[in-house]
Amino acid sequence: QVQLVESGGGLVQAGGSLRLSCAASGLTFGYYNVGWYRQAPGKQRDVVATITSGGSINYADSVKGRFTISRDNAKNTVVLQMNSLKPEDTAVYYCAARRSSGGPYGIWGQGTQVTVSS
Questions:
Q1: What digits encode the pLDDT tens for the residues 58-68?
Q2: Alpha-carbon torsion 61, 63, 67, 72, what sign?
Q3: What is the rounded distance in angstroms from the CA atom of residue 25 to the CA atom of residue 10?
Q4: How far, in Å, CA of 101 to CA of 89, rounded?
Q5: DSSP string for residues in 104-117
Q6: How far apart are CA 51 and CA 90, in angstroms?
Q7: DSSP letter string over 51-88?
Q8: How far apart are CA 90 and CA 76, in angstroms?
Q9: What pLDDT is attached to residue 28?
Q10: For 29-52, how does the pLDDT look when each residue is reduced to its tens digit (9 = 90+)?
């Protein structure tokens, strides 16, 4: 069974940090690109950061310099380190995966809530 499970969300004050983890099972993780997305109440789901199977990384402009994505294929995990958090970072954060050969992000986790208080 293919599964992504996020963890590490919570409540933090502005300026604080959180570390989100995405654990994968049921797939050969090294063959997949992985992305972190977020969705705030009443808003669309937006990409936060992506990392390819080869380690190429992209960030949304809103998180550049504050968030860092990394992966450990041996442990089947992708981590999103979030520093200098702002209230506008409040959202449900989702991990998603797609085959590096192409196609949409079709494997999604259940999401983890991040709340940043001002």
A1: 999 999 999 99
A2: negative
A3: 23
A4: 31
A5: ---EE---EEEEEE
A6: 22
A7: E-TT--EEE-GGGTTTEEEEEEGGGTEEEEEE-S--GG
A8: 26
A9: 84
A10: 889 999 999 999 999 999 999 999
